[in-house]
Amino acid sequence: MVRFKKKKSRSLIKNACTSLIERLKDEGFIVQLYESYSSNSVYLKLDYGVSNSIRISDHRGKAYLDYRFNLLTSVTEKSREVSERGFVKDFYPITDLDDLMKDIVEHRKERLDKYGTIRYQKYMDKNIKEYDKLPGFWSKSVVV
Would you tell me how many other CB atoms lie within 10 Å of the CB of residue 112? Predict the structure, then answer.
């Protein structure tokens, strides 16, 4: 496991986040951004959660949180886990933005194929109405 000093880690996370947001927007994603107050973690929700979320961090995170995509300074190779609740969790090294982007775009295509464009949009609208005022991520995040 690779360990970085906190300052270097913060810089890696910020650079990866900036680059990733740019690339996601180029692909047409709506991106919500939330920066943790208590750690170096950054969270990105894609298309209001319909295409899941990305956690960018320097530590593994809490076991009960099931972020689909995890971009970490603390891993050296891509891996996949299934959580106790049955959710797929993919982990990528912080330098592996290309593979992460490929998987995210493919994941959204699978969702669009499953729901169709109109239902996908309705699912986004439903999430906005249902969660927009909830404390935590939804009330503190910004669309970038």
Answer: 15
Domain positions in the chain: 6-143
Q: What is the DSSP letter of 30?
A: -
Residue 143, SS3? strand
Q: What is the pLDDT of residues 9-24, one digit of tens each?
A: 788 899 999 999 999 9
From 84, 101, 83, select the one nearest 92 (Cα to Cα): 101
**pLDDT, tens digit, for every residue of 27-60?**
999 999 998 877 888 999 999 999 999 999 987 7
CA atoms of 82 and 76, how far apart (whole Å): 19
Instruction: Specify burial of residue 4 (Cβ count, 10 A radius: 0-12, 13-18, 19+).
Output: middle
CA-closest candidate to residue 67, choices 10, 81, 132 = 81
Q: Label residue 30 exposed, middle or buried (CB < 10 Å: 0-12, 13-18, 19+).
A: middle
Alpha helices in the chain (DSSP H): 6-26, 97-131, 137-140
Task: Give me 62's structure tokens.
Answer: 């809490």
pTM of the model: 0.87
